[in-house]
Amino acid sequence: MALPTTHTRTPRRSRATVALAVLATALLAACSPAEPEVPAPVTVTPTVEADRSAPPEPVIPVVWPLTGVETEEVAARPALAVKVENTTSARPQTGLDQADVVWETIVEFEVSRFIAVFHSQVPAEVGPIRSVRPMDPLVVAPLQGLLAYSGGQSGILSQVQGSGVQSLSHDAGAPGMYRVSFRRAPHNVYGEPETFWAAADAGHSAPPAEQFAFARTAEDASAVVAGAPATTLAFRMSSQARPTWTWDAEAGRWLRAEGSTPATTPDGDRLSAVNVVAIDAAHVASGFRAQGGAAVPTYELVGSGSATVATGGKYLDGTWSKESPEAPLVLLDEAGEPLTLAPGNTWVELVPLGSGSLTVS
After folding, report:
1. How many CB atoms lie within 10 A of CB 59?
2. Which of 16, 191, 239, 283 has most Cβ atoms within 10 angstroms of its Cβ?
3. Using CA of residue 277, residue 218, residue 97, residue 130, what is the dihedral sign?
């Protein structure tokens, strides 16, 4: 009996199946991402055109030369210095609160006298006006302006006239000075600054040059930046003159007193300053004599010495120098750099070297 034969059949793909497989392969090939083409590097050189226009000019503010305070325009008038008395018979004085700079000096009999310098403000009246002294030409010569006073000794008058300033003397009949009835002579000569300025000749009509270096702002002033705190500046100028300056933070100013008595205007307002400068200088006999043969002193202001600048409730020590009578007094710090003041008015105390003093507290 014949045995059955076992045969395993392998199914054959139909033509349709094969065709589908071929189509799928083609589609997969079509959908596969192609290798990215890396572009050749391109170097681009920018075209830069040089700006040949001039750079903008720096903005330099216009300031009053004696205060450093900004203004739209500096008035075309000279500096006006006026000799003002400072005895008890003369207080309260008129016009001091509008001065750009006030210099306090010690004259005979150890009393103080002021040289009040006006330029940025025009007070209606100034006084009492008194006579000149030998130190006045050294102070006012750099201003090359006007000096108004009541009179003086012939030798001192010659020094004033040789200093380059225009002299306006009450004794010589200068216009604008008169005697008032509410004070006794010789404490009653007053004057009108507008009339003084109207009398300026062609050689004394230009605004003054800057006398001190000023910072742009009070915060940038030398004493404020690098100084030590100060509340009171107590001066001993002489046995008769002991001015005191007290810092008023609210007002941002130093307030003046004559000893313990507040110094005021006729309206009762305190005399004040943004800057107080102390100059130590030799206080020597000038060779002139006053009543009773009393020696008339002067200061040695050509040379150098120690100085103190007080601004913004702070003070800073330095030095001063003056190359010639016509040169302005220069203030320097210990490194020899200019000491800058804050914009505003300044009082300069000429402290007699050796006998005078400044106590800061």
Report:
1. 5
2. 191
3. positive
| pLDDT value for 58 | 73
State pTM to two decimals. Answer: 0.84
Partners of 292 in the beta sheet?
none
Half-sphere CA count of 309, side-chain side, radius 13 A: 29
Task: Assess contact for 144 and 167: CB atoms under 8 A.
Answer: no
Strand 80-85 relative to strand 146-149, pairing: parallel
CATH architecture of 80-360: 3-Layer(bba) Sandwich (3.50)
How many Å apart are CA 10 and CA 126, to the nearest integer? 135
- Helix then strand then coil, in percent of the chain rounded to 5, is 15, 35, 50
pLDDT at 59: 75
Q: What is the distance of C-alpha 71 from the center of its chain?
A: 13
DSSP state of 27: H
β-strand pairing of 272-273 with 253-258: antiparallel
Give per-10-residue mean pLDDT for the chain (361 aa).
Answer: 38 42 44 57 63 71 97 97 97 98 97 98 98 97 98 96 96 97 96 98 96 97 98 97 98 97 98 98 96 94 98 98 97 95 98 98 97
- Closest by Cα among 216, 213, 200, 214 to 79: 200
Residue ranges per domain, the chain?
80-360
Residues 105, 299 contacting (CB under 8 angstroms): yes
The verdict on whether omega for the bond into residue 186 sits within 30 degrees of 0, i.e. cis, is yes
Task: Measure the CA angle with vertex 235, ends 122 and 88; round to 5°.
Answer: 60
